Amino acid sequence: MGNNLGIRIPKYLAGKLHVSEGALVNLKLTNNGLIISTEESELDILLNNITDSNRYHELLSNDKMKGNETW
Fold first, then answer.
1. How far apart are the first and last CA of the chain?
2. What phi-psi label fits residue 49: left (phi over 0), alpha (psi between -120 and 50 degrees) or beta?
3. Using CA atoms, how far apart are residues 39 and 44, in angstroms rounded to an integer?
4. What is the residue extent of each domain of the chain?
5. What is d(CA 37, CA 27) in angstroms, rounded to the nearest whole number?
6. For every one of its 71 residues, what pLDDT tens digit does the chain have, with 9 covering 90 and above?
7. How many Cβ atoms from other residues are within 10 Å of residue 39's Cβ?
8. 29 Cα distance to chain centroid
């Protein structure tokens, strides 16, 4: 990506942050330095917005099989 710089972090920190190579992060410049935080994926954002009032209860409340499903 042009003249962009990369940042290397220790593997144990990457594991704790659930960050892997190519992950998107947020950078915030402060008076004391740089804050690096993980960026939520679009799927995480969508899943975090599911509530009891906006999910499809009728699809989940009937546990009878309708086809060849097995549980």
1. 47
2. alpha
3. 10
4. 11-61
5. 7
6. 578 888 888 999 999 888 888 888 889 999 999 998 887 777 877 888 888 888 776 665 556 666 776 66
7. 13
8. 23
